[in-house]
Structures are given as C-alpha cells and as structure tokens.
Amino acid sequence: MTCEFCENIIGNFSSGGQFESFVLGGAIGALIALGLVVILLLGIGLYIYHSIAWSTIAKKLKYKQPWLAWIPFANVAMILQMGGFGWGWIFLLLIPILGWIAVFVLFIISMWRIFDKLKHPGWFSLSVIIPEVGGILYLIAIGIVAWSSKKKK
C-alpha cells in the first residue's frame, strides 16, 4: 500500500513538470534560509566586535562600568559619558527624528573627544557619516583606537 501511495505521488509530480517546480521551490527556500542564517551570524559577530572594542576603549579611559558596552542604549549612554556629556541625553532617542539626529551629533562629538583623549585623530569619528562605507570605516576606527599601543595624554 505504501509503494502504491509513493508511486501516485511521484506520478502526480512527474506529469506536467510539477516535480521540478517542487524541487526548485525547495532549493530556493533553502538558499533564502541559508542567507538569513549568514546575515544573522554576521550581525551577531559585528555586535560582539563592537561591544569588545568599546569595552576596551572604556577600560583604557578607566571608565568604571565598561561592561555597559554590551547593553543596547546603555552603550550609547556610556559613550556620551566618556565624551563629556551626561547619560541623560540618551532620552532624546524617545523623540522621533529630531531627537535621533541630536543624539547622533552628540555621539560623533563624544567619539571625537574620546579619540583625542587616546591620542588618535578626532576626525576618525566622522567616518560614520560617509555614505555607503561609513559603517565599515567606523568599525575600523574603533578597532584602531581600542587595540593600538598609543599611550594616553
């Protein structure tokens, strides 16, 4: 009985190219799933890199809570504090668009100050505003600042 059932399924698929469509659909679905897994793993890797780099920078500046680099939003507050602003500025993120722009500007100013404190060019902080390649340049800049051997002023 099972063999007849299997033969009916295969027979139904083989007529009219349905089997090929079924296999092609499965292959496309598998490629999409693989792509999503790769994107997820890449995102997790970038988050870990970002957190380790900012934690290292905070330790270089003798910040009391470098573990805040691992917590979303708290890491931005930590960077603002290290740059000379109060942590309360993070609440501007609750104001759509204008608040986000204000925090972004404060973030860049904070990074400039942090990079200067660690004897690196402050203009590294401007890397985030460069279209298309800014994110990559930002990751390179924080890596240089975190793991270079320059001494503090």
Written account of the structure:
The protein has 153 residues and is mainly α. It has one domain (2-147). The protein is built from five helices and no strands. Helix 1 crosses helix 2, helix 2 (18-60) runs parallel beside helix 5 and helix 3 (74-82) crosses helix 4 (98-117). The radius of gyration is 25 Å and the shape is elongated.
Helix content: 55-70%
First CA to last CA: what distance? 83 Å
Strand content: under 5%
Number of structurally distinct domains? 1
Q: Look at the structure and give the mean pLDDT.
A: 88
Q: Treating each run of at least 4 consecutive H or I residues as one helix, how many helices?
A: 5
Structural class: mainly alpha
Which radius of gyration do the C-alpha atoms yield?
25 Å
Number of strands: 0
Order of helices and strands: HHHHH
Q: Shape, please?
A: elongated
Low-confidence stretches: none
